[in-house]
Amino acid sequence: MPEMPEVEQVRKTLAPHITGKKITAVEVRLPRLIKFPSAEEFAGRLTGRTITEVGRRGKYLVLHTDSGSRLIVHLRMTGALIAQSSDKPEPPYAKIKFTLSDGVIMWFTDIRTFGTLYLVTDGDYYIEGYETLGPEPLSGDFTPAYLQPLAAGSRRAIKSFILDQTVIAGLGNIYADECLALAGINPMRAAGSLSAEEIDALCRAVNTVIAQGIKNRGTTFRDYKDGEGKSGENQKYLLVYGRGGKPCKSCGRPLATAKVGGRGTTYCEFCQK
DNA sequence: CTTCGTTCCTGGAAGC
DNA sequence: TGCTTCCAGGAACGAA
Known about the structure:
Structural class: alpha+beta
Shape: globular
Oligomer: single chain
CATH class of the largest domain: Mainly Alpha
Strand order of the largest sheet: 2-9-5-4-3
Number of helices: 7
CATH topology of the largest domain: Helicase, Ruva Protein, domain 3
Largest sheet: 5 strands, mixed
CATH architecture of the largest domain: Orthogonal Bundle
Strand content: 15-25%
Number of strands: 11
Distance between the termini: 27 Å
């Protein structure tokens, strides 16, 4: 599942293949993926535009064009953007084809078709989830001083709290479990029950876990691939995610599984208090 | 206001 | 073996 480190890896691997290239054709095969404007307008407005910059915010990719418009893409669970030569066979589950000026094709592929794409020009559309994103991990805005007062009043489970994109931009189910494991905090604890020391440890854990995910080029558990169709390596270093029943890497006792906020959760009952 | 459950979708695994 | 059922999960949405 693409979370912040995976989306960052897609950004890095996509950018050299598409930056400075002109979009010469757009073929939308599943119009409902385009949330704004209509699929026809989306294709029409993008055709002839040059991609000037490939950015990211939270789990959103932001492709800037020379007209000032921005193509904003959320991969959700199984979406992927892959740049490859036009003489290569098209990838499976191809839903949108962006033909670029130099014989490169950028494919949007998606198995479960939850992905969303927007073309925003001069703020003509308000993407709720994008506009309300909280601070980025590893940024100067993400600090214990920011997190503490937000958590203070909250009775939500700390895992649900850190999964909330308006609190922190970019954490998903895998990294949320990893952060809480590293910080030694039980995922079911109420956010407001964390001490200042625990908030501090959690902030550090989020930064450590995300930095490690980026360094390892993302976590490939099922479907995630980067902008060149390659897998990541971070799955080899996970502390808890996907390891239910296996020994805790800290105390050796079997890891527990539970549902927290409707999400599958793995943690150590003994090391995470 | 906050918090929680449901929904979208497909493929793969588990169960009978 | 082959069918059915369940589960994976990001985030919008509606309900409590």
